[in-house]
Amino acid sequence: xxxxxxxxxxxxxxxxxxxxxxxxxxxxxxxxxxxxxxxxxxxxxxxxxxxxxxxxxxxxxxxxxxxxxxxxxxxxxxxxxxxxxxxxxxxxxxxxxxxxxxxxxxxxxxxxxxxxxxxxxxxxxxxxxxxxxxxxxxxxxxxxxxxxxxxxxxxxxxxxxxxxxxxxxxxxxxxxxxxxxxxxxxxxxxxxxxxxxxxxxxxxxxxxxxxxxxxxxxxxxxxxxxxxxxxxxxxxxxxxxxxxxxxxxxxxxxxxxxxxxxxxxxxxxxxxxxxxxxxxxxxxxxxxxxxxxxxxxxxxxxxxxxxxxxxxxxxxxxxxxxxxxxxxxxxxxxxxxxxxxxxxxxxxxxxxxxxxxxxxxxxxxxxxxxxxxxxxxxxxxxxxxxxxxxxxxxxxxxxxxxxxxxxxxxxxxxxxxxxxxxxxxxxxxxxxxxxxxxxxxxxxxxxxxxxxxxxxxxxxxxxxxxxxxxxxxxxxxxxxxxxxxxxxxxxxxxxxxxxxxxxxxxxxxxxxxxxxxxxxxxxxxxxxxxxxxxxxxxxxxxxxxxxxxxxxxxxxxxxxxxxxxxxxxxxxxxxxxxxxxxxxxxxxxxxxxxxxxxxxxxxxxxxxxxxxxxxxxxxxxxxxxxxxxxxxxxxxxxxxxxxxxxxxxxxxxxxxxxxxx
Length: 661
Ligand code: C2E
Ligand code: MG
Ligand code: MG
Hints:
Beta-Lactamase, Alpha-Beta Plaits
């Protein structure tokens, strides 16, 4: 007997036998059909008798693939043998079964295994056999659980339990290949309770996992030093905080790292950081401790089970590890660190960021105490942090309610002390109606990023007062202090100054922006800001000159018009001849460079005499006037017969632009 294709029944039976078992395990309606659509075998989901010719196969534009229908449902039909003598028809239902068959069984890459009732391999596709390196005969009858790693004791019981319970399981496990290596396979396993059989489609995810591991490693590692990074540190700390443990955090800030960078170059700085990391590496990622680089010259340690004695001895150990010099480019470099320690106890806010903040605060304190030491985050520091927190909250409310007031301190010309300028000094009217001086809140405002907003409120008030005086015929210079944060906004700050001047009708040549060296040195981006201001006639004053790392070369290199000599110089003038000599030379140098000099903090007549004697022409201090309200200032200036001739001169950059447009 022949069938519709002219193929012998025996041959067809052979094909059907090969595919029969697989057919039975398919979780969707599936049938084997001959090319004329006659059903030669079917699984239990198909409702028609074998031999019925129910599937009408359409002509397919794709060779080897067709659609069919039996009037009720559509079928997807594919040949299962090379000669297209037997076709597998799967009902094209919108469930994932049909999709699975298409995607996994026929695609060469997917792994396919059918297990018999004893759980042994009854059928598998070439992809699975090739991946494991076994021949078809070798895997037939194999108990594939024996291919799992010997230490994987739980996968089998978990998967079997899931299959029993839900009829499916999606595990990932490793299987040993013939050459002894392992492949990680992601499986979708199905168990047909009626047939007592299981089949699985799988995908080799070994490389995927390696890539994911590599990405994970990169995401958690500091590029420069190879130590764990901030993300890893915070995640680990957060995980520890979810337990009842009392972790200790050690924040290590290198001392004077900037000096190494500046004097020996960034490359040497990098080498030093790597050298330090090498010494810390043995502690980097241990079972109950972690040492990470946060960034820059900041490292951080975590002891999962921290106690104060343990944390302190760890800090001492770190300080000891750094004692030996580092050999960088043949030169011995000594590195020390300031370490802040905190231990999360019952009173602590149990958040990783908060703990890190506490340790950071303590490290900052250690630095202030003289470096190369550790400091514990104690009650006094906790109070300090609370204070800062309250101040910050108060400042935010004050910004909203416009509770920043401005006092004005006159700048006078010598001799005669006629008012030629005024410095706007911010005050915070707090909720208890006290006037708080900047020394009590500026650092908090800076750290909280509030200075630009505060600066805007100050500038508007100050420029209005100056404009009002100018309109009354009393044109005097108005100084505003610019914080590093304001300057760093660049063009935005320039626009703010010019817009406020325009809004208040103030001539920009009356404005002096006071900056400190620390706010601009090393911050290249601020130079264009200063040039842009000067090109519009705004003058730049270098405030508090002589404090910190003041450099005479800045007087020549920075685009400035005025130097304000810090009050600490003036305080010593009358009784210290060295200070007198230094200040006098500074004055001469500035005058030679055509810079105006204001001597700040003149408190006594002796100070004033010393200033005048050495040729000081501009001064500011309690002796002449204390900072005062706008009203008092207007009265004071109003009483002045005329504005002293030695007013601050216009910016040289403006003069240059005027001469050479
Ligand atoms: P500064 O810019 O050097 O301002 C001069 C400070 O010295 C003022 O303190 C002033 O009251 C004080 N002073 C003036 N003459 C004397 C004197 O004869 N003896 C003594 N002992 N002190 C004198 P104040 O108002 O407390 O301001 C402190 C600092 O706060 C300012 O120093 C400035 O750096 C900053 N600051 C003030 N207002 C602002 C502002 O609006 N923005 C920014 N960014 N900083 C501001
Ligand atoms: Mg100032
Ligand atoms: Mg000053």
